[in-house]
Structure formats: C-alpha cells, structure tokens
Write a structure and sequence with these properties.
The chain has 484 residues and is of the alpha+beta class. The chain contains 16 helices and 17 strands. It has three domains: 146 residues, Rossmann fold (3-Layer(aba) Sandwich), CATH 3.40.50.2300; 113 residues, 2-Layer Sandwich (Beta-Lactamase); 127 residues, Beta-Lactamase. 41% of the residues lie in helices and 22% in strands. Helix 2 packs parallel to helix 3 and helix 5 packs antiparallel against helix 10. The chain is elongated, with a radius of gyration of 41 Å. The two termini are 72 Å apart.
Length: 484
C-alpha cells in the first residue's frame, strides 16, 4: 500500500534517522526502506553504547530504538542518555514491553511507540507523523521568535509619491530604505525607474496594476510582493499606501510604508508545505489517523479510519469516542491520559484498545496518542494513530489455545507404571476398565513400543521336539538358542 500519491513525496531531504536494532536482518530491511523513502540514515547501531556514540556524531532528527538490545545496556537506558545529552527525540520500536518497562520508558519522554511486527508503510507513516509534529512546533516557535525580532527592529521605511492630475510627478524614499532594499535615497532619486527594476520580474505586472489602481480608482489596497536587493538577494515586502487629498478633495499623492516580511512569508510557505505533506499522509496512510478534541469528539478522520470502523466522515464528526469504544475501559484510559499530560507534554501515550464498528462487531487496535498545544501550552487536540491488530490478536489467541490444547494432550498421555494385573496362566492384562486384553494389545495402546512375535529356544524344544536330536542340539545347526 502506498503512503501517498508517490513514495517519498512528503519527505524532507534533511531528515536523518538513526536505527538501533540488534537484529541485523530487520535493521537492514528498515534501513533500505527508509533510504527508498528519501531519508538520510545514520550507521545502524546494535547496542546502547553504539547508539549513544552514533547519535553524538551524526545528530539525527529521530532515533528508532529497540528496547531489547544485546549487551548490558537496554534501549530505554540508551534513549535516556541520548535525550539528556543531545536532546534528540526517540521512538521505541519493540515487540514486547511490560508495565515496569512502560514506566521506565515514559521517563525518557519518547515521541511514540511502534509494536513489532509491523508493515514498513506503517513505520514510514508513523515516522513522518512524528517528524511533522516536531517540524510544526519548531516552525511555529521559530516563526514567533523571528516575528518578535522583526517587530523589535525597524525593518520598514516610508516613501512619498506626489501626483498632479492623476500623474506621478515625484517620488521620495525615506532614509531607512537602504536597510530594506540595499539602495540609498540618492540612488532612488537619481534613477526614477530603480524601484520598478528592483521589483521581482514575476511580480512586476501586479505591482504596476496596483499603482495604476491607486491613481485611477483611489484604491488603497495593501500589496505584498518580492524585490531584488542591491546584493542580489530576494526579499518579500508589504506595501501599505495611505492616500492624501487637497482642500478640494482631489488626490494629491500618497504616502506608503514598505515593510520587510521575508521571515514571515518564509515561515508561512514552510507551514503550507508541511500542511500539504500532512494532508497527503492523512489521506493516503494505510493506518487510521484521527484528530480528537479534549472532549473526545472526533474532529477529523482519514479514509483509512473511516474504512476500518465503517463510518463516514460526517458520522464520525457527530461521534464521541465513548460511542464507538469499550466504555468500561474509558475511565481508566482518561486517568492515564490525564497523568500523561501532567507528567510530560512531549510524551506519546500508547495503548491497546477495542473499537466498535458500525455493524456492531469489535476490532482490536494499537493506539498511539500525541497532543498538540496552543501558544500558552494548553493541549488542544490529540493526534490518534490507530492500527488494526484484530488479526494479530486472533493469531495470539489461537496460539494460546493451541498451547493449552497441547499441554492438555501431554497430560493425558498414558505411560506404563505402577501395579499391572496380569493373568498367571494366559498372561492377559486387565485394563483400567476391568477388561482382560492380550499383552500385545495392551502394550500397543499404553506405550510407544511396537510388538513383534518370535519364539524362545525353551518353548521351541517343548513345542517342536522333532527339530532337536538326542543331545538337545538343533538339527542342521551347531549353535544353540536360535529362534525360527
């Protein structure tokens, strides 16, 4: 199953991953798959010590950590050191984890869990969702910091345009123009067409049309466009005109503010690209993805989840989780979720959960929940990644039933032992139901022995005396004791 319209289309080339796995075959398969998807992959680590060393030299964006590793250090201990020393997020990829390990793992603040065995597309989707979440948070924080620096520094300047009878007669640029454009006031004064040439060629038609509308229609709309600075770099600016009128109400010009908005534009475009990547993953992922508000209403659900549960998106929008899940378990799950939020904002919460399909049947799922926060640090939504594990559960149940059946069969296997009643005359044996059986039949039914028939020398002499001479020797043989 594809993860999107084309594999790798949602991957950022700069994303680097570290695989920590002591199963060489599995590690190689994961490494090849991630490389096919466009990730950079650091050298695979098989022990906790190797993981710490590689994380320090390659500084990956995410560590995929198996908990059970060769050597004295397990994956949880290695993850804690990596998080503390380098601040690199860790996602656990493991086949089994008990309650004690869960508590230890939570202390390392992992960004997620993935349970073995898994499909490679499930791994790719889970990784990209976690990277997307971290990119979003970093992008928003960086954008806020950049915007703060922009507002604190003066990155804009004022210009004045004088008009007469709807025609521009002069333009003056304030002294601060050099900080935004790289050109001085005198350079603008000496070259009336410098501003026009400085506008990026792809935006010139819009800028010219904007200027014409100001003069013709007295339209003071704001316009955003690119300029090419004196040093050749491209910047985004916001042009805000303020019209001026004479005593008779005729427009005599306009003043304007040019503000450098490059940082904000870059952040917006990166956010749009990240959202596009997330929408592609949301649509094409092979596992269920849901956005759930803090009242446990389903805000958004991808097609895979709709198919998994049998509900349309409109039906899910009107649904609370309590309506489609194992209700008795919800109270404990709410408590655990609340505890997870209290202990660590960055942690993910993982659990196995039953969901009720539209037809009334239940399915078992593996759920990983991460939370999205507003600027004040208050959780707004939970991102639920839901994997159908019904077949896996059924296989586990069948395996347990088979083990019980085999244990029962082994317990019922009869072995010869104790007191065995045997007739002193005919040599028949009495079974546990009181029936007397031939010796051969009893041995066959109560042991793994195979019975063959022969005759001993003593019986042969008594039954077939004609075969022996007067000296007791078998006629035709010199050796005694041979059977027929």
């Amino acid at each position: 199953m594809e993860i999107g319209p084309s594999e790798g289309s949602a991957i950022m080339p700069s994303d680097c991953l570290l695989i920590v796995e002591d199963d060489a075959v599995l590690a190689r398969n994961i490494e090849l798959r991630l490389m096919q998807l466009g990730y950079d992959v650091a050298p695979v680590a098989a022990t906790g010590g190797e993981a710490i060393s590689t994380a320090g030299t390659h500084h990956p964006d995410l560590v995929l950590m198996d908990i059970h590793l060769a050597g004295s250090m397990d994956g949880i201990e290695a993850a804690g050191i990596i998080k503390e020393r380098y601040g690199i997020p860790v996602m656990y990829v493991t086949a089994y984890i008990d309650d004690a390990m869960v508590q230890r793992a939570k202390a390392t603040e992992p960004v997620g869990y993935l349970v073995k065995p898994f499909e490679m597309n499930e791994l790719a989707t889970t990784i990209e969702l976690q990277l997307y979440r971290r990119r979003m948070e970093r992008s928003l924080r960086a954008s806020e910091e950049r915007y703060k620096r922009i507002t604190e520094s003066v990155s804009d300047y004022i210009y004045t345009v004088r008009t007469q009878d709807g025609v521009v007669v002069s333009t003056e640029h304030g002294e601060a123009c050099a900080g935004v454009t790289g050109f001085s006031t005198s350079e603008f004064k000496n070259d009336p067409y410098l501003w026009w040439r400085m506008v990026h060629e792809e935006d010139r038609d819009n800028v010219v049309s904007h200027a014409e509308r100001i003069l013709r229609d007295q339209d003071d709309a704001i316009i955003e466009h690119r300029i090419v600075r004196k040093d050749g770099s491209v910047r985004w600016v916001r042009n805000t005109p303020v019209l001026s009128f004479d005593a008779r109400g005729n427009m005599c010009g306009y003043d304007g503010v040019i503000r450098d908005i490059t940082e904000r534009k870059t952040a917006q475009m990166e956010l749009q690209r990240s959202e596009a990547r997330f929408r592609a993953i949301h649509r094409w992922a092979g596992i269920g993805i849901a956005m759930v508000d803090m009242s446990l209403h389903i805000v958004e659900a991808n097609p895979a989840l709709q198919k998994m549960l049998g509900y349309s998106l409109e039906e899910l929008h009107q649904t609370r989780l309590e309506d489609i899940t194992d209700a008795p378990a919800m109270q404990e799950e709410r408590r655990q979720l609340s505890q997870s939020l209290t202990e660590n904002h960055d942690a993910s919460y993982s659990l196995q959960k039953k969901f009720k399909r539209k037809g009334g049947s239940f399915i078992w799922t593996q759920v990983t929940i991460t939370f999205l926060y507003d600027e004040a640090g208050k959780p707004q939504y939970g991102l639920w990644i839901i994997e159908d594990m019904t077949e896996r559960k059924r296989a586990e149940q069948e395996r347990e039933e088979l083990i019980v059946s085999l244990q029962k069969a082994l317990a019922e296997v009869k072995t010869l032992g104790g007191l065995i009643p045997i007739c002193s005359s005919c040599k028949r044996i009495r079974d546990d139901k009181g029936y007397w059986n031939l010796l051969e039949k009893y041995l066959s039914e109560h042991s793994d022995a195979t019975v063959s028939h022969g005759i001993c020398p003593e019986c042969e002499r008594q039954l077939y005396p004609q075969l022996y001479d007067e000296h007791g020797q078998r006629k035709g043989r010199r050796r005694q004791g041979a059977g027929l």
